[in-house]
Amino acid sequence: MNRPTDTNLWKTLMHFVALCFDKPDSLAIRQENRAAHLAFLAENAAAVKLGGPFLDSAGQMCGSMLIFSCTDEAAARALLAGDPYGKAGLFALVELRAYRPVVGVWLA
User: Fold this and answer.
1) Is 66:17 a contact under the CB 8 Å cutoff?
2) pTM score
């Protein structure tokens, strides 16, 4: 498996998946805050590895998935707390899970 060349950094970062589920009938909140959310992700691009919206059966955005790296769970929760979607009260439920990446191009 290919790892980042800075092995000390690799060992000090933890990897997380955030599964964020929108409140019912909240598409307007999502759309109103989308530009700020995308700007927030761009500002935190060093930590955010992958992300995107969940889609419902009509193709409308209804949640988010983010994969990111932080020093610990507290830092991961702090990152999520700064997201404009979270600040706007968009989510009914947010699950944060630590995980160990094994394969994928961003590991190269």
Assistant:
1) yes
2) 0.83
CB distance 18 to 96 below 8 Å: yes
Q: What six digits make up the tokens of 8?
A: 């000390």
Phi-psi region of 89 (alpha: psi -120 to 50; beta: other; left: phi over 0): left
DSSP one-letter code for 107: G
- Can you tell me the distance from the alpha carbon of 9 to that of 43, in angstroms, rounded to the nearest whole number? 20
pLDDT in tens, 28-63: 999 999 999 999 999 999 999 899 999 999 999 999
- Type and span of the H or E element at 84: helix 84-87
